[in-house]
Amino acid sequence: MMDLNSLRQFLVVARLEHLSRAADELRVAQPSLSRTIARMERDLGTPLFDRGGRLRLNAAGRLFRAHVERALGELEAGRRAVAESISEGAGSARMASETFLTLTGPLAAYKRAHPSVELELHWSPSEDMARLLRARHVDLCVSSQPIHAEGAETVRLFDEEVGVAVPLDHPLAGRTSLSIHELADQPFVTAPQGHWLRRLLDRLFAARGLVPRIVCESDEHGAIADLIGAGLGIGLVPAFARRKGEHVPAAWIPVDSPDCRRTVTLSWDTGSHLTAAARQLRTTLIDWDWNQDRGAGEGEDP
After folding, report:
1. Contact between residue 192 and residue 203 where contact means Cβ atoms under 8 Å apart
2. Which of 53, 137, 150, 222 is the most buried (most CB within 10 A)?
3. Element at 8 (helix H, strand E)
């Protein structure tokens, strides 16, 4: 018989695909955790992991993980629903996003309007958001890439141009637009694999039979802008971020390509009970006048 603790332990092992690291995170002995997984596999009648060298979640394990995440998520949703029904408090709202730079305006307005709400913000790459929604770990997700999750509903928040930032003394700094072919031999400072910025860069180059020359990867937007300003390379920068961020000595130049854009969306699981606080946050984000933020700072450097 599988208990809740065993199922939670399985999810950690499935996420890390490493028994000793999972045992450290769970603060249990590795032999005990190994026995828990082995017992679970006996109960199910099939291995959940491939053990040829490194531990790998197999097809049966991925199928089981999805159901376990949904089941534990339902229990958590039930707990929050009961807590909301018997409490006179403001409740809580949980949101995941790839970046919060573009969300500071509506989030500040939301907290001013609902100061007692417990607002939880989680950074997450978009590829993890379907799992977070399915497992009820978050109520809402804001993403610059599509979220492929069964039962998820998505609305567009805003669409914006993505340009190229170059150092002020760069030979291309005076240009009013640039083509991808003109950027083919340039050194790029960009985000790691999986991030929407990197995917956009790779997609733009691949469509033209090119491969970008990447000299630095960073998952910090501020670091990318600083490295560009310091002359280490050039990089893609969304219009919103270059106006909302700190001043960096770099020129922002439009790219002569209609697909050099990003669309920011808001998603939630239609089968999940959203707390009143989460519904209010969803309304704030959907109704927010994104043009007021995008209109500020026109003509400034990134």
Report:
1. no
2. 137
3. helix 4-16
Beta pairing partners, 141: 96, 267
- Determine phi and psi for 225, rounding to 5 degrees: -65, -40
- Going by the DSSP 8-state scheme, the letter that residue 252 receives in this structure is E
- The total number of residues shown for the chain amounts to 302
d(CA 90, CA 31): 44
Cβ atoms of 215 and 232 within 8 Å: the answer is yes
CA distances from 221 to 185, 218, 276, 298 (A): 23, 8, 32, 20
Query: Helix or strand or coil: residue 163?
Result: strand
- How would you write the pLDDT of the chain (302 residues) with one tens digit per residue? 678 889 989 989 998 999 999 999 999 999 999 999 999 999 999 999 998 888 999 999 998 998 888 888 778 777 767 766 666 556 789 999 988 888 999 999 999 999 988 899 998 888 889 888 888 889 999 998 888 877 889 999 999 999 999 999 999 999 999 999 999 999 999 999 888 899 999 999 999 999 999 999 987 777 888 899 899 999 999 887 666 544 567 899 999 999 999 999 999 988 777 888 999 999 999 999 988 755 443 333 44
Rounded-to-integer distance, Cα 223 and Cα 32, Å: 42
Cβ distance 22 to 33 under 8 Å? yes
How many Å apart are CA 10 and CA 19, to the nearest integer? 10
pTM of the model: 0.72
Q: Which three-class secondary structure state does DSSP give residue 278?
A: helix
Question: Strand pairing of 187-190 and 213-217?
Answer: parallel
* Half-sphere CA count of 90, side-chain side, radius 13 A: 15
